[in-house]
């Protein structure tokens, strides 16, 4: 994420909008009495101010600014009503890292009076532009811009207000696209106040799939522009849209279109609260049957990419949001109510994605068993846990699926399951007989427990009796006589000799805040003991009653 600094000379209303939504390293003003400094104080944002007249020349002035930027390791300078022209000294050091917002639709009406100049020219519409700063005046490469119409009953004051409102909407969109770090509290508040988000909690995947189907099917000026969220360059490729269906043969979305007279189907499989299953997607592809149509390609949606399949592309919720906003900005014929609804939805999924990805990133080296209070408040802690636990399981799998951990029963299998908002990771050796599992032994990690775990899978085995299995594992040295609140010399909260469910038994020690590396070390230390237990005679087949 980029560290940003905001430069402003006056009132600081754009700064206020930015600072409420994004992490701002500091604000700088070239006027010591500007109100933006007061805004910064109220928002708790560090502020600095000095004036050109305090220096011998502009070069020295900009050298002081560069020192400030370098000290705070700034990636992006955001000009928001900064009334100084950026000089060659600052530009030489930070070119390509300074952006500006201009209250007109550049290249129309450049300069310090963009709003007044547009008004006096009597144009039907003006706009707002965010652009990179170069050595000219409002001549840098345009990043993004929007049109603002002049209404029949407008006054200059009313027109100016709507221009500024467009600025407050456009700058955050650009900053997000450029990688500025959104504030967690802002995202949480936006989602809590959104009626669309509240509705979506009734079906965390279904609601989004339903919205996408409506969006794709929305016809504007004779075309369906939002089909390009999932099939980019749809119309430039000469495709002809036909329809979008929901839950046809269990597929989330089926987008039907014509390509050079041949019927095609693009499948969208939406995965937010669950993880994609490769076999399921291949079945959708290989078993697709509809008269006059053939499977063309597929999209897997989600937070992060967890699966690679040849005919399927991954599309993150973040990119979906960006594509929706981009299409919305370039499509004029959408009604105001639909425009507002679509923008709210795009902002919602952008905020949700930011929150979840930030939480995933912040815990990428840690073993975690629950989400933050923010995600719990939003009822998305279970989604976070699924993604993180899947990452941890895959890391464990890479470390243990090696010849060093081969046993008479083969290599361990790593599996993950979810129930009651808990993730369970199993690293187990399975004994097979006539292609059926008869028993297992290994490690199970759930919540704060590191479990030594075993169980029979055939009823006629004497080891199906939990006491018999415990005594056998005690005899083989895998489990311990539990009496001093410790297992393997580590603290345990067990209240009896062993825990149990179904035909399974386990002992555990407590684990808390630890790195994934530490967790994997514990697993790799324990697996040789599991292998030794198998070698020494654990056998669910021989122990038939």
Descriptors:
545 residues, alpha/beta, Rossmann fold, Trna Endonuclease, Chain: A, domain 1, seven-stranded mixed sheet, six-stranded antiparallel sheet, 16 helices, 37% helix, globular
Q: Explain this structure to me?
A:
- The chain has 545 residues and is α/β, with parallel strands linked by helices.
- The protein has three domains: 4-181, Formyl transferase, N-terminal domain (Rossmann fold, 3-Layer(aba) Sandwich), CATH 3.40.50.170; 201-357, 3-Layer(aba) Sandwich (Trna Endonuclease, Chain: A, domain 1); 387-535, no CATH class.
- It is 37% helix and 25% strand.
- It is built from 16 helices and 22 strands.
- The strands form five sheets. The chain has a seven-stranded mixed sheet with strand order 3-2-1-4-5-6-7. A six-stranded antiparallel sheet has the order 14-15-16-17-21-20.
- It is globular.
- The N and C termini lie far apart (62 Å).
How do the strands and helices of this protein lay out in sequence?
Blueprint lengths: L3 E4 L5 H9 L2 E6 L5 H9 L3 E3 L8 H14 L4 E4 L8 H7 L3 E5 L11 H8 L3 E8 L9 E8 L6 H22 L6 H9 L2 H6 L5 H11 L23 E9 L2 E9 L2 E9 L7 H9 L6 E10 L9 E5 H13 L6 H27 L3 E2 L5 H5 L3 H20 L12 E7 L2 E12 L2 E11 L2 E8 L9 H10 L10 E2 L2 E2 L7 E3 L2 E7 L3 E2 H20 L10
Parallel strand pairs: 1-2, 1-4, 2-3, 4-5, 10-11, 11-12
Antiparallel strand pairs: 5-6, 6-7, 8-9, 9-10, 13-22, 14-15, 15-16, 16-17, 17-21, 18-19, 20-21
Helix pairs in contact: 1-2, 1-6, 3-4, 7-12, 11-12, 14-16
Enzyme class: transferase
Function: Catalyzes the transfer of a formyl group from 10-formyltetrahydrofolate to 5-phospho-ribosyl-glycinamide (GAR), producing 5-phospho-ribosyl-N-formylglycinamide (FGAR) and tetrahydrofolate.
Organism: Streptococcus suis
